[in-house]
Amino acid sequence: MKRIFVIILFCKCCFVLCLPTVFAKAVASQKWEKSLVDIEISQKRYDYFQPWAPRNEIIEKQGVVVNGNFILTTAQYFNNSINIRIRKGGVGKWWDAEVKTIDYHANLALIRPKAQQFFDGLVPISISEKLPVNGQIDIIRWRENLIELRKAEITRPVIKPSVTSWLAYLHLEANCDIEGAGWSEISVLDSRLCGLVESQDGTTLTIITASMIKHFLKGATSASYRGLGYFDFVWMKGQNPDSLAWLGQTNPAKGVIVIDFAGRQRTNSLIQRGDVIVKIDGFEIDSEGYYKDPRYGRLLLEHLATFNKWAGDSIKIELIRNGSVTNVNYVIPKANFTDELVPFAVYDKEAEYYIAGGLIFQPLIIPFLKSWGSDWERKAPFRLAYYTRQKPTDDYQSRVFLFMVLPDRYNIGYQDCRFMVVDKINGVKIQNLKDVKHAFENPTDTVHIIEFAKGEQVQRIVLDASEFQSATRRILQNYGILYQYVISN
Amino acid sequence: MKYQDPRPYLAHVVYVAHDADLAILDVEDPSFYDGLEPLEIGPLPKVRSAVVTYGYPAGGEQISFTRGVVSRIEVQPYSHIGNRALLAVQTDAAINPGNSGGPVIQDGKVVGVAFQGMPGLENTGFFIPPPIIQHVLKDIEDGVYDGFPQIGIRITPLQNSAYRKYLGLNNQSIGARIDFIDPFSPSNDILKQDDVLLKIGEYTVTSDGTILFDGNMVHASVALSLAQANEEITLKILRNKQEMDLKIKMHVIKYDSAEGFKYTLPKYFIHGGLVFTPLCRDFVQSLREGTDKDNFNMDLFYTLFFSRQENPQAWRSEPVVLASILAHPVNANFQVKSKALVDRVNGRRISNLKELVDAINSNTNKYDVIEFMPDGAIECIDHEKAVAATGEILSTYQISEQSRL
Question: How many other C-beta atoms can be found within 10 angstroms of the C-beta atom of residue A68?
């Protein structure tokens, strides 16, 4: 939110304050005007402390015309979009558009106008075959109705997650004196698209590479989009020769040690804890987890799960187990936000809640915890935050918590209860709000019994079942809340 | 030192009650007591009554007297030990650093010992009241300080009419609910969740979990804290809509890693420069208070304060942490640096420091294999080389002993 505020302020003020600078940096290039477009997104935003009261935000970002009459942009800010409009030439009419394919793990989206005439006079951009790892590139965007071009110096290729996901894949970092970037500005090398700028930190830009863009476009324009996958094993560096020797690896410079598994535990995983992974897809893995990529040089092994690979593809992994070399065909699992006990994000769904006699229940998700700011791991209620360190279990694939209580005579005695994870309601195990709704529809005897996870400040509370509906209606009316619940499919 | 006497006298600690933040000292030179008269310990002062604190707070050399009123009397956390709450008196008489340990006087009698303030609040000081002082004095009559016993239950208010009706109570304001029972306490075999606590001894428990104690509504735990170690108390409860009397023997928790500083030197064991120590409140607190964000270790915090209640089956009585690594070629390749919880050593699950020492000292294999949690990191160190290097490491870092167990 801070970022949006800054950008809007910047755009409004700089017309007066920085106009000479803008003109000085502007490039009268007809070529880019015919490929680069403005995108305006109206989206619903939620305050998780009042999830029943969404508000509207309008975002402007960049897109670029690609082959097939599509517009390519980053996925960020399309979450819960209401209207999408696009504009060409930096001025004039806004055209209605829609999302064709979006991948929040790749942070890429393909959109299209509802009227094909939009493309009249526009030219699709060519995508670079070169994959630069150093040298200069151009950063180009619409700004104040003019094309602005800045030089950027690539500093390094890096494997890291996009801002919209936890999935790590190849990005470029570049140094540039541009201000307010990170809105899908295009990066160009030799007049060809070599990346999209997804974020800016000081003078460092993070750029989604052309290799990922080409991979995404190939998938997005195919019959079905399979999505990206990842290596679900957690590894540590194999830099302790004693550890490697104990695990049977005699070459001290090769291999990383598998120590755990991410997300939902796969019962039939071919990889085991204590395996030393020495080769993936034919590339030797060194003791720091890097391999020598023929295009980018030394890269973290995670790149091999996403480079020209989709979820469900298999990849050969050579490992050492109990001193013997073993080869496995590892099937790359699909990256799903719902695989985490506490999801990193929930995209394109309304904020969920369920109000029961004034007790407000919500699913435990990281966007809620981020209500405490960037330092949420320290500042959010500790017990809630610690669930992000825990894995789904057979009993609980996700968790629901009591957010707070809207005080009413019906719930007297519980008004201080908040931020407590729910185990069961009326004997029903609670993993999501559908479970909550179902449980409250089936009271135990004459009461509703809500049981909280061990260690919470209160273990159990009881509500009167006969007054439940009337009390809930009264509370919703008193607090001006339209709907008792929002539960996504 | 004593009033208007410039000579310092040597004293030593006879008893220390960390849970009550009190200590009994004796002065080696009997002449110290010449001219001094013992003060009588008075009753619990009344709210709004005047008290005077005596002490040597910061800001001067002479004894300082400050007058105030008793603002309120209730159960407060005792910050010295960190994880206990006992009866305390709040006063607006200035209690500043240096006042701690000084008497609070009313009508010529000691009605408290100044002990803590509350940062950020003005005119808010706290003193330890007579019931706590008397409890400590009675406790040491047998020559040993046992401490305040605990019953191992959590009491919550029972104010919701639906819950009261469900448990068979009428709508009077009597009875609080037992919400949680420590699975490691003797109460676990006697009390049950949803038992309604009606009386502790002669004290009636109200629906907000308080009792009327000497004219003050205070948390029901005050009635429990009056008992001495191993004393039997009687509880009147309502279970399955039937009243019953239960007797419970109060017990003292001898070791609780969630407690704070206890004036005992921390235990440790050094093997090949790897420094292992039990996880305790002070260790975690030192990380949490640091300004370095990376220092905050959620796993240590969770293990110390939450795992006991949430997962009693997997709980370890004295979790062990790799506190630091004293750099030496024998450990230079270790990837786990410090602040890591030890899960297993040489295949043995580690529940306390002694088990870790045994697991290492009894190893006959080439490597010591150390597994950490919760991330499952595996580290090995050559056993013989580590043993051989330990002496040199101790010498380099000027450490006199390999272990303090």
Answer: 12
Rounded Cα gap, residues A159 and A32, in angstroms: 29
The CA distance from A201 to A178, in Å, is 11
Q: How confident is the model at residue A27 (pLDDT cuts 50, 70, 90)?
A: very low
Q: Is B380 on the interface with A (CB under 8 A)?
A: yes
CB contact under 8 A, B301 and A382: yes
All structural domains of chain A = 36-119 (2.40.10.10), 136-220 (2.40.10.10), 233-337 (2.30.42.10), 340-486 (3.20.190.20)
**A278-332 residue pLDDT tens:** 999 999 999 999 999 998 899 999 999 999 999 999 999 999 998 899 999 999 9
Token look-up 């003791």 returns A287
> Closest Cα partner for B63 from B130, B1, B115?
B1
ipTM reported for the complex, 2 dp = 0.89
Residue A198 in tokens: 């997804």
Instruction: Return phi, psi of residue B396, to 5°.
Output: -60, -40
HSE at residue B58, side-chain half, CA atoms within 13 A, is 2
pTM of model > 0.80: yes
| CB atoms A454 and B311 under 8 Å | yes
- CA distance readout (Å), A289 to A256, A304, A334, B106: 6, 11, 21, 71
Instruction: For residue A266, name the pLDDT band (cuts at 50, 70, 90).
Output: low
Which residues have a Cβ under 8 Å from the Cβ of A350 and sit 6 or more positions away? Answer: A44, A46, A54, A80, A486, A488
Q: Which residues of B59-81 are buried (b: 16+ CB within 10 A; e: fewer)?
A: eeeeebebebebbebbbbebebb
- From B4's Cα to the closest Cα of chain A, the distance in A is 51
| Residue whose entry in the numeric block shows the structure tokens 């500790």 | A382
Cβ distance B347 to A207 under 8 Å?
Answer: no
Distance between CA atoms of residues B250 and B187, nearest Å = 9
Among B169, B298, B345, the residue to mutate for chain A (most A Cβ within 10 A): B298
User: What does the pLDDT look like over B217-254, one tens digit per residue?
Assistant: 999 999 999 999 999 999 999 999 999 999 999 988 77
Nearest to B213 by CA among B202, B229, B197: B202
Is residue B291 less than 8 Å (CB to CB) from chain A?
A: no
Min Cα distance B60 → chain A (Å) is 39
Residue B27, CA distances (Å) to B7, B14, B30, B133, B169 in order: 13, 10, 7, 20, 57
Task: Name residue A364's amino acid.
Answer: L
Work out the average pLDDT over B382-400: 96
Nearest 5°: phi and psi at A37?
-130, 160
What's phi and psi for B232, nearest 5 deg? -95, 135
As a whole number of angstroms, the distance between CA A49 and CA A152 comes to 41
Contact in structure between A355 and A484 (CB atoms under 8 Å): yes
For B24-72, write each residue's pLDDT tens digit: 999 999 999 999 999 999 999 999 999 999 988 887 778 889 999 999 9
Q: Does B367 touch chain A (CB under 8 A)?
A: yes
